[in-house]
Design brief:
The protein has about 220 residues and is of the alpha+beta class. The protein has 4 helices and 7 strands.
């Protein structure tokens, strides 16, 4: 048996578990939204962060990365237990078809696990629901938790999607609105980014990313 997990948020750049293969691709009929509260990683119960989840949307596609775990039941169990702790604010585990880049006619892998959330404030205490762009940007610009601040999560997601060659217009729009809140101007200083240097597109303005301690591996 082989375990496959689809990442569309921080898993794209920080999976945090032992995997054997990472494949760039997409799932169909879902879109990324920042409708989920995070109160233990990049926010607090008093000032929750906004992190991304998926919303069902016919005809939409969501790009990300699928991670494969091979090596037997014990290795798969450890990976899944880690993910369930990390993704504790997501109350759904769905099985989806995953499509590789350049091959859209048939799924490359079926039965891929994806963590999502019920879009209902009554049954899901972490569901914030949609909000105006300016409201979300203000919340993301100011929320801070044990794993760091909310804005770095958004900026790292923006960079991760650029790195895999599939930028998300909604993420870009939200990130630029957060920069307006922060009053940042100029061009992005690549020395502040985690990982190897990249030439970033012109829409990305100056931000400052804070490198988190290596001991902190959980994120949403």
């Amino acid at each position: 048996m082989v375990l496959w997990v689809f990442g569309y948020g921080s898993l794209v750049w920080n999976p945090g578990f032992d995997y054997d293969e990472k494949v760039i691709g997409f799932i169909k009929d879902y879109k990324r939204v920042f409708d989920l509260a995070c109160i233990d990683h990049r926010g607090t119960p008093e000032h929750p962060a906004r992190t991304c989840t998926l919303k069902e949307s016919e005809g939409a596609i969501c790009w990300g990365a699928a991670f494969c775990v091979r090596g037997g039941p014990e290795k798969e169990r450890l990976a899944l237990e880690y993910l369930e702790r990390r993704e504790c604010e997501y109350d759904r585990k769905s099985l989806v078809d995953f499509y590789k880049e350049g091959i859209t006619s048939a799924p490359a892998v079926t039965g891929v696990i994806v963590f999502t959330s019920t879009p209902d404030k009554v049954s899901n205490k972490y569901y914030l629901g949609p909000a105006p762009l300016e409201v979300m940007a203000s919340q993301i610009a100011t929320a801070v938790g044990p794993c760091g601040n909310n804005r770095d999560y958004l900026f790292l997601l923006e960079k991760a999607m650029f790195d895999i060659g599939h930028e998300d217009d909604m993420v870009i729009e939200l990130a630029n609105e957060v920069r307006k809140v922060l009053g940042k101007v100029g061009t992005l200083n690549e020395k502040k980014l985690v990982g190897r240097p990249h030439i970033l597109p012109s829409h990305i303005s100056a931000i400052q990313l804070h490198v988190l301690p290596e001991a902190i591996s959980l994120d949403s």
